[in-house]
Design a protein that fits this description.
The complex is a heterotrimer of chains A (288), B (285) and C (272). With 288 residues, chain A is mainly alpha-helical. Chain A has 12 helices and no strands. The longest helix of chain A has 35 residues, at 70-104. Chain A is globular, with a radius of gyration of 26 Å. Chain B is mainly alpha-helical and 285 residues long. Chain B is 77% helix and 0% strand. Chain B is built from 12 helices and no strands. The longest helix of chain B has 35 residues, at 68-102. Chain B is globular, with a radius of gyration of 25 Å. Residues 1-7 of chain B have low confidence and may be disordered. Chain C contains 10 helices and 10 strands. Chain C has 272 residues and is of the alpha/beta class. In chain C, helix 6 (151-165) packs parallel to helix 7 and helix 8 packs parallel to helix 10. Chain C has helices at 44-51, 74-82, 99-104, 113-121, 126-135, 151-165, 181-197, 209-215, 238-245, 254-264, and strands at residues 5-13, 19-28, 33-37, 59-64, 67-68, 84-87, 169-173, 201-205, 219-223, 226-231. In chain C, strand 1 (5-13) and strand 2 (19-28) form a beta hairpin. In chain C, strands 6-7-8-3-9-10 form a 6-stranded mixed β-sheet, sandwiched between helices. Chain C has a 4-stranded antiparallel β-sheet with strand order 2-1-4-5, with helices on one face. Classes of the chains: A mainly alpha (288), B mainly alpha (285), C alpha/beta (272). The interface between A and B is large, with 75 and 69 residues.
Chain lengths: 288, 285, 272
């Protein structure tokens, strides 16, 4: 396709303001990088030079070979399956949380847009709905800004150690993330089929189920599956704070300085993550 | 009535495929098993002990700890978190650019650029391609926190370990996405440059990069947004930043400090998201 | 002087088994202007991609300036490609780049990587670009963004790029098929003038039969990967054209054929 733009005659140089912005931003970034580098005293020289490389080589040698004895392998397998379970249930919980919250944070479902054209809400009812919208949005923000690991700490504090708090933490945090993403999909829905439904006298709830949700479903599935890939990684590490899975076992190996076991567990994490990545990609191809 | 855009599951599979049933079956089985394995027990949430803890937690958070001595700790932690995220992203880019280029099949051995090349030449470049893909996969499949653990053991506590951990794991993610963006570019301008005798690097500079740059920059900025959140957490394993403070406060059950720290984290993330979002919007010219 | 192109029994079979080029033998002398016509899918584009050294033939030999190309290594092939400039039907410029960069990209075969990089920031040899754009009539668009130009203008930018490249051979694969028909004739004339000036060999793939017959001293008709005829335009009869386009969806029908032939003044109209 020959690309064309229907703009006016911008034949010579672009306007000065358009030229300035990219340079400003680049300059800002360069300054940011320099300041950060100085602050951390990143000594790349030491890293690739003798000292740093030597230290890392020493540690790497400590890790190999991985401990492949039968009890260790069983431990790794159990941990891997537990981690998988945490990520699986956690992701499902997240979807469960995200669904109602996403609907409640879509203004075009709550109080404006095509569903409400032609009927005016009383100011009291509208105020109520705006309030619902605002609270739901606030809840979403809290859920997704607090990192999974902090949630894990909180839930461990509430219900004790083990994989359950990990699952809850993942579900709650990812619920916030997915809630926001799902909501964006809802807002971007094509209004034309909704028009058609409305013209045939469908109620708002019916429009929601027959017009809005079917459009949103493919993208929702895609997001949820993609998020599962993130979650398996998170599930693997939540164990550091006692939330079960491979993470908990990694923490133990570290504390006991059992490096060979550590390597086995890390390999297990790698396998688990690659597996879920592959599953997720496959499902995304088949389902979406 | 249904919009033509929404090809639902039923439309996709038709009536003959067994896939939906198989899928449903496995899904339900996995779900039930996982519930057991994850020791899911909702009753635990509403047990008196849990509720009492919840009360302690919530009451302990207010009012947030805003004393100057504490804020003097929070301030530098915030700055350190930013620095870790920036340097980590920089290291990630430095890794991702060469590896991502090598991992692009249309640049190394397949596609129009290599039509005339002999099999030997193609085979020569397949090696580095496969190797870089394997490396990228390794880097991004091991969670940052695990990398951070390893680096803390290897180079000591502190933000440097965090930078390295972020650099490697995000390098893997950036590299993979870079290669996907490059492979998705329109091949025709590349063919035109190639037919005029341009070398690979010339084709990249004049054909690929101008097409791909906005997407590349946009994703890199998005990674920086993620890096800010990640840097905050790397502190849990001793790699500096806000995470370290959150962990300390949690251990000492100082919930009001946690509220302050979470508030700081919230502001930080919102700030970075805002800046990054504005820049990314301007890229879509 | 050795012929520019010497093709013997060239064949190209793709991986899916389709035969795009089925035994083409052809000789083209330096400085010749040749037009290739034929139905879509006849293999003209594949032939051109073999000619500009981006596709490897399955069988047969091709000599470029007397040298057998099958023995050439990758870097020699790259050098050879510098001597061949190709203009495509569409989409071969990068829209986001400014015209000056797209034009100067013709130098990429000559420039070092550093120079190429520097030129993106500060264009090297802007006068050459300006002159090339002047030759094609749009020198005022030097700093415009390429996707702001019309289709015809973008094709002129592509021609300007080939001018900067300064090859010995110019190949143009349906250069005017996506362009306003009123502009097509002027662009083809431009290509012919530019090639004649510097005595370059010009090979054109044309969809429009009347344009080919009217502008070129040698017409090659390609059908199903084979050469059907290779003649000067006055020797091309309507029967040949009908045979060439037989079975083509956009086949020339009698009325249209009469129109073409009378407009180009080449021969008497045929009776039904």
């Amino acid at each position: 396709m020959i690309v064309t733009k229907t703009s006016g005659d911008h034949s010579i140089l672009a306007s000065p303001r358009r030229l300035l912005f990219p340079w400003l931003v680049t300059g800002g970034f360069v300054a940011l990088v320099v300041w950060s580098g100085l602050g951390i005293q990143v000594d790349m020289g030491a890293l690739v030079g003798g000292e740093g490389r030597h230290q890392m080589a020493v540690y790497v040698k400590k890790l190999f070979p991985p401990d492949l004895s039968a009890p260790m392998l069983r431990e790794a397998l159990v941990g891997a399956i537990e981690t998988f379970a945490i990520s699986f249930v956690g992701s499902l919980l997240a979807v469960l949380i995200a669904l109602p919250l996403s609907v409640l944070t879509t203004r075009t479902i709550l109080y404006r847009g095509i569903l409400y054209a032609g009927r005016r809400l009383g100011s009291g009812e509208k105020g109520f709905r705006v309030g619902v919208y605002a609270s739901a949005k606030a809840v979403l923000n809290v859920l997704r800004t607090i990192p999974e690991i902090v949630w894990a700490l909180i839930f461990v504090f509430l219900v004790g150690l083990g994989p359950f708090p990990g699952t809850l933490a993942l579900g709650v945090h990812t619920g916030g993330v997915l809630g926001k993403l799902f909501g964006e999909v809802l807002e971007d829905v094509d209004p034309r089929p909704l028009e058609t439904l409305r013209a045939t006298g469908a109620s708002r709830l019916q429009i929601l189920f027959y017009g809005i949700l079917p459009q949103a479903l493919p993208q929702w599935t895609s997001y949820a599956l993609y998020r599962w890939e993130v979650n398996i990684r998170a599930a693997a590490v939540l164990g550091f704070v006692g939330a079960g899975g491979l993470g908990q076992r990694i923490y133990i190996s570290l504390s006991l300085f059992l490096e060979h076991q550590l390597l086995t567990l890390i390999i297990a994490v790698y396998i688990m993550v690659t597996l879920v990545d592959g599953l997720s990609a496959w499902l995304r191809r088949r389902l979406v | 009535m249904r919009s033509s855009r929404s090809a639902g599951f039923a439309d996709r599979f038709g009536s003959k495929s067994a896939f939906p049933y198989l899928f449903g079956f496995f899904f339900v089985i996995s779900f039930i098993l996982s519930l057991r394995l994850a020791q899911v027990d909702p009753r635990l949430l509403v047990e008196p002990a849990a509720l009492a803890n919840l009360g302690r937690f919530v009451r302990g958070m207010f009012p947030p700890e805003l004393s100057p001595s504490f804020l003097q700790v929070v301030g530098p932690a915030i700055l350190e978190t930013i620095q870790i995220s920036v340097m980590g992203t920089v290291v990630a880019c430095l890794l991702a650019i060469p590896l991502g280029l090598l991992a692009t099949s249309s640049l190394t051995w397949s596609g129009i650029l290599h039509e005339r090349a002999g099999r030997f030449y193609q085979g020569l470049w397949f090696g580095p391609y496969a190797l870089s893909r394997a490396l990228l996969s390794l880097f991004r499949s091991i969670p940052e926190l695990v990398w951070a653990l390893l680096f803390v053991r290897a180079v000591g506590l502190g933000p440097f370990a965090g930078v390295l951990a972020l650099g490697i794991s995000y390098g893997g993610m950036l590299g993979k996405v870079y290669s996907e963006i490059l492979e998705g570019a329109n091949p025709r301008p590349l063919e035109a440059l190639h037919s005029g005798g341009a070398g690979r690097l010339g084709i990249v500079l004049y054909g690929l990069l101008p097409q791909a740059l906005p997407s590349l920059l946009s994703y890199t900025l998005y990674r920086w947004e993620c890096a800010i959140r990640a840097s905050a957490l790397l502190g849990f394993v001793g790699a500096g930043g806000l995470g370290l403070q959150i962990e300390l406060s949690m251990r000492m059950f100082q919930f009001n400090e946690i509220l302050t720290l979470l508030g700081a984290l919230f502001l930080l993330v919102a700030g970075v998201d805002f800046v990054s979002g504005r820049i990314r919007a301007s890229l879509v010219r | 002087m050795a012929p520019t192109y010497e093709l013997k029994d060239l064949r190209k079979v793709f991986d899916d088994g389709s035969v795009a080029v089925d035994g083409i033998s052809l000789t083209i002398e330096p400085g010749e202007h040749v037009a290739f016509i034929g139905p879509s899918g006849a293999g003209k584009t594949t032939l051109f991609r073999i000619l500009n050294l981006t596709l490897r033939p399955t069988a047969g030999t091709m000599r470029l300036g007397g040298v057998d190309v099958s023995g050439l290594g990758e870097s020699e092939l790259q050098k050879a490609r510098r001597r061949i400039g190709t203009i495509y039907q569409q989409g071969n410029l990068v829209g986001r780049l400014r015209v000056v960069h797209n034009v100067l990209a013709g130098n990429l075969g000559r420039w070092s990587t550093t120079k190429a990089l520097v030129s993106l920031i500060s264009p090297q040899g802007v006068d050459v670009a300006r002159r090339a754009l002047g030759r094609v009539g749009i020198s005022e668009k030097l700093y415009a963004r390429t996707d702001e130009l019309s289709g015809g203008q973008q094709q002129r930018v592509a021609i300007a790029r080939v001018l900067v490249q300064d090859p010995d051979i110019i190949l143009a694969d349906e250069p005017v098929s996506s362009v306003d028909p009123s502009l097509a004739a002027s662009i083809v004339a431009l290509l012919r003038d530019l090639s004649a000036e510097s005595r370059k060999t010009l090979l054109l793939n044309l969809h429009s039969v009347d344009l080919a017959l009217a502008s070129f001293p040698r017409i090659v008709g390609i059908q199903e990967g084979r050469i059907l005829f290779d003649l000067s335009p006055e020797k091309v009869t309507p029967e040949m054209l009908r045979a060439l386009y037989a079975g083509d969806d956009e086949a020339v029908d009698i009325e249209r054929l009469n129109e073409i032939l009378s407009v180009s003044g080449l021969c008497r109209p045929i009776r039904k």
